Amino acid sequence: MIKNNLKIALRILWKNKLFSLVNILSLSLSMAVGVVLFTGLKATYDTDHFHPELNQTVRILTQETNEVEQTKWATAPLPLETQIESISFVEKTVKVRLAGKHNLQTDGGDVPIDIKFSEPSFFDVFGFKLVSGNAQSLTLNPTTLFLTEKTAEKIFGNTNALGKTIQFEKLGAYTVGGIIQDPPLETHLPIEAMLSMNAAEVLEKKGALSTSAQNWGDFKSAAIYARLKSEGDLSQLNSTLQKYNRKLEKSSLQFLAQPIEAITPRNNDIKNDSNAGTDWTGIKIQLSLILALTLLSAFNYVSLTLARAFSRAKEVGIRKTIGATRRQIISQFLMESTLVSLFALLFTMPCVEILTNYIPEMDMAFSYDTTLILGLLTYAGITGLVAGALPSWLLSAFQPIQVLRKMKNIKLFRSIAVYKVLIVVQFSVTIMLMIVVVILADYEIKNHAIINSTVSPNVLTLDLSGEKYENLQNEISQLSQVETTLATNWYFKPMIKGKSSVTLNDKILEMFYVSIDPKTIETEGISLKSGQNFPTNLPQRTEQYVLVNEAAAKLLESKSETLVGQTLLLDSAYVQVIGIMPNEIIGETAPLLYRYLPNEIATLTIKINPNTELEATKAIQSIWENHFPEKTANLQNLKDGYLKIGDRLGSIGGLALIVMIIAGLGILGIASYSVETRTKELGIRKVLGASNKELVWAVTRNFGILILIAGLIGVPAGLFSGELIRQDLGSSLVELSFINVSIGFGLVAIVGLLTVLSQTIRAAHIEPVKVLKVE
To answer: Both 607 and 504 in a single domain?
Structure first.
């Protein structure tokens, strides 16, 4: 049975080459995106699965509790390792110090390399393998350095790196004593270069590292791992760790064990875990995209199959007359759709290569293991079944008597025009996405213009990398090249915003906020509409006051002046409104709160004197190195730090393009088939005197109507999506204007009509003699 279905399916696909090609191309394109996403999901699932005894290996987490909050960290104080090592059911432990990136000095300039300090047990607990070198040399020689294969190639090219000496800025010279094999899978603990724990102690004594190995408070730059004797010892370890709770000056520490396998997907509640991979929200988004693209591509198959329904009706009728059951008919159509999907898989991998080449940041390597191959075949099979489900169900319902008598039921079926509905759905989605792309492009252009006109070129930003900024800010402020420094997440545009719940007089609103340095208002010469600036010597831990802009004041109170002095509930704390800021000087009218939240300050904004950027940069980097020698200063010009136009449009623009191509291929096949099935009608029209333009219009008109109907659905959907974006960005620069909507709809309509015309223009070349000679 399967063999016969396969033979018939191959003959049908070969006989209808155009429709088969359109289906294969549209499926392969959407499946290529699905394969990229699927491979990413597989990499997430496989993270750290190359380590031995994975179920018995754990990472120690630190839970820090202070007066304000409770925070969970992926790191732990190194002194805890000695106590864990003495636990009877702990087989091995390993310490890892995270030093961050340090500049490696080369003839071609500085190369930032991520450095970690560890010990020989690292290669026993984890699955990292040494290509060359001895793990014990980490203990024997503090000047020995291990590099990964990729890092060694980046530094030395194809030259053998063993025995080579390299020089790190501030850390000194080291000799390459071993090469670490690049891991076969993703890991939460990526390695570029490894030094010994002994080297860390030497650097501590020299003052090159600011943290101390014996300090319980320095737990944010070290990690502890342990391998248990059995998987069942995990709960016992967590109970034992409660004995080692530590009380610090301003906080208390508790410890718990996390299985290595549980690190990925990332838990957003755990800090200092930037390499833990995608979180569950990201996974759900990727799965949704895979499903959406599969359904959109399946629409093409469904629409083409239903458009050919009447030509397959006799086949179904005859097969049923000679004894075929409905189940057998369904299996035949499903075999065809699955075969199309499997053929599409052959074209998918070249499409994947093209997609990855146009996504530079995607460092994706395909290892065709059994799991991936089976996954791709399963994905192709499911896609084929989804695409063929509706056509097989509808076409198998034909009754032989009705089909072989004038096919009235087929005409009735065609009047339902299911395939037209599917085309409308495809173009509605495409119109919606294109409108969103146009709205975002318009926002980026305006935002870019505002940045150029309002942000001074003499402003630098210094990423604090989670460090305290007070002492650093004071020293930088004293530099002769520096005009002023501000610890703020707000500086004209754009800004780092959060969102809070605001309650006042039974009004409950969601509003954006920024953390602002009290000195900002005075420094920038901003005149408050009413009220006053934050008082001096504000407490660091307790928030007492808040400023609002005019737009927020308007929402909270009809008369802005009466709002000053009132108390409102901000999330779970009561604060007093002490002043009203003007709507931003760049014309922003979104409601905004200005709060003093020192713990949320991520950068220092540094205004420098004109033409002193080079000198100021060197001086600021020197101060940074004195405070945080283990970290490289991330200092840049404020304007240079902003994304270029179009960078944020890449993903959604690419998705819109793919959907447009899929929709275009679908309408291409339908238009071509429409011309073929209406040749007699068009021949008669031409005999009766219809002009070439009239013939083209007769075929094109229906598709134009479908695109207009799609616009009636897609335009409101695009406006709704644009409004969600405007609310999310909190910016009035996101304009849902008639021009933006018209451009988005017009682009899709033009592409659709040009695709249709590429086929319907053949109607003008109908030769009545050839078409009607057998009538």
So the answer is: yes
Give domain status of residue 37, yes or no.
yes
Q: Is the pLDDT confidence value at 423 over 70?
A: yes
The DSSP string of 599-640 is GG--EEEEEE-TT-HHHHHHHHHHHHHHH-TTS--EEEETTT
Supply angle C-alpha 120, 255, 215, rounded to 5.
65
Q: Tell me how many degrees the CA angle 466-470-471 measures, rounded to the nearest 5.
A: 105
- In a shared domain, residues 508 and 630: yes
Is residue 744 scored above 50 in pLDDT?
A: yes
Two tokens, residue 430: 């495409």
Count of C-beta atoms within a 10 Å radius of residue 96: 24
> Each residue of 183-214: pLDDT tens digit?
988 899 999 999 999 888 888 887 777 666 67
**What is the residue range of 472's domain?**
455-637
Asked if residue 421 is part of any domain, the answer here is: no
What share of the chain in percent tops pLDDT 70?
A: 79
Whether 194 and 292 map to the same domain: the answer is no
* DSSP at 1: -
State how far the Cα of 419 lies from the Cα of 681, in Å rounded to an integer.
21
Inter-residue contact 308 to 16 (CB < 8 Å):
yes
422 lies in some domain: no
Count: domains in the chain: 4
- Who's near 95: CB < 8 A, 6+ residues apart? 78, 81, 118, 119, 197, 222, 223, 224
State pLDDT tens for residues 525-580. Answer: 778 888 888 887 777 667 788 888 888 888 887 555 578 888 888 876 788 888 88
Return the C-alpha torsion angle 438, 439, 441, 447, nearest 10.
Answer: 160
- Whether residues 296 and 181 share a domain: the answer is no
pLDDT tens readout for residues 489-507: 766 554 567 777 788 776 7
Task: Find the mean pLDDT for residues 403-407.
Answer: 53
Boundary of a domain, candidates 394, 416, 438: 416
Of residues 751, 84, 682, 144, the one with CA closest to residue 433 = 751
Average pLDDT on 24-51 reads 79
Residue 614 located in a structural domain = yes
Q: Nearest to residue 767, comparing CAs of 680, 696, 697, 698? A: 680
Dihedral of CA 421/426/427/431: which sign?
Answer: positive
Cα–Cα distance between 435 and 428 in angstroms, integer? 11
| Residue type at 368 in one-letter notation | Y
Cα–Cα dist 462/637, whole Å: 9
* Residue % of the chain over a pLDDT of 90: 11
State how far the alpha carbon of 89 is from the alpha carbons of 86, 93, 166, 238, 422, in Å.
9, 11, 41, 12, 62
| Average model confidence (pLDDT) across the chain | 78
> How many residues in total does the chain contain?
775
Closest CA to 372 of 350, 349, 343: 349
pLDDT band of 409, cuts 50, 70, 90: very low
Query: Among 224, 246, 271, where does a domain finish?
Result: 271
Q: What's residue 94's pLDDT?
A: 94
Residue 546 to residue 567: CA distance in whole angstroms: 10
Residues 119 and 257 in one domain: yes
Which DSSP letter does residue 761 get? G
383 within 8 A of 31, measured Cβ to Cβ: yes
Confidence check: pLDDT of 276 > 70: yes
Residue listed under structure tokens 């590099």: 147
CA 99 – CA 578 distance, rounded (Å): 43
Q: Of the ranges 58-67, 406-415, 471-480, 594-603, which is most confident?
A: 58-67
pLDDT mean over 29-51: 79
> Same domain for 82 and 208?
yes
Beta strands 193-196; 109-118: pairing state: parallel
